Amino acid sequence: MQGTDMPRLGFGTYDRKGDEGIDAIGCALETGYRHLDTAQDYGTEAEVGAAIRRSGLPRDEVFVTTKVTPANFGPGALVPSLERSCETLGLDHVDLALIHWPAPNGERPLSDYIPQLAEARARGLARHIGVSNFTTALLDEALDILGGVPILTNQVELNPLFRNRTLADHCTARGVIVTCYQPIAHGRIGEDPVMRQIAETHGATPEQIALAFELSRGYAAIPTSGKAERIRSNFRALDIQLSEGEIDRIEGLDRGQRSIDPDWGPDWD
Ligand SMILES: NC(=O)c1ccc[n+]([C@@H]2O[C@H](COP(=O)([O-])OP(=O)(O)OC[C@H]3O[C@@H](n4cnc5c(N)ncnc54)[C@H](OP(=O)(O)O)[C@@H]3O)[C@@H](O)[C@H]2O)c1
After folding, report:
1. Start and end of every NADP-dependent oxidoreductase domain (predicted)?
2. Looking at residue 45, what is its pLDDT?
3. Nearest residue CA, atom 21 of ligand 1?
């Protein structure tokens, strides 16, 4: 599982809407990002498709993820919703389809919608499937339901200030790649003096250090920005090698403060 074709550094597209959004996603592709993260809920699937077409890149060089919103979990609803996503993207399949959130307040059992996700994969609408915002218990239950069908990733909030270690370690132990959302703490990573200091040592930004840390742990990360300079600079995290000592210091920064925590969300670990 860990050796798949999903590029570990991707570009998030929340808020990358309209012409500015297409320009930002296009800038990411020009910079070298080959993994774009969208969702039915973001309203950026059309922008992702437009930017890919404009880039002239062959379809199979860009790894495209979308996420199914809980409103589409009802019987027979998930597969048609992914067909609509593909139509909006202008693609005949996505590389990865995720369950965006477990059903709000657990109002629907996983057995209602996880098999529909597997069906989407079997029909070729998605090359891989996965989940997002799943706890250890929900991940185990989903893996049980799927039998041998692999879950590629669990996309969760994780950055040096919110380490989410119990969940991340469990994903890794179960062969599920951790994808970090809010990987630069939504722009707040530079508030931390240790991150600033390590960045200075490398002639880098705290954001690059956060991303390099996550990649060093074997995770994927999907930062976003609407600014070309930041899109480019975040990508250069791939060039940074942290020492074991630096990694240990970053491991000590966890504040345990989750930032995305809706009241209808799951019982977190
Ligand atoms: N699965 C889920 O439930 C879920 C939840 C949240 C997010 N996501 C995904 O994860 C992606 C990233 O998460 P996110 O957007 O919440 O957080 P993020 O990538 O950690 O942070 C983005 C914010 O940081 C700023 N920023 C970017 N680069 C910077 C830099 N080098 N220096 C200083 N500030 C910088 C951006 O502002 P500027 O635009 O002004 O640069 C933006 O406000 C989303 O786009 C989405 O694809 C998924």
Report:
1. 9-254
2. 98
3. 186
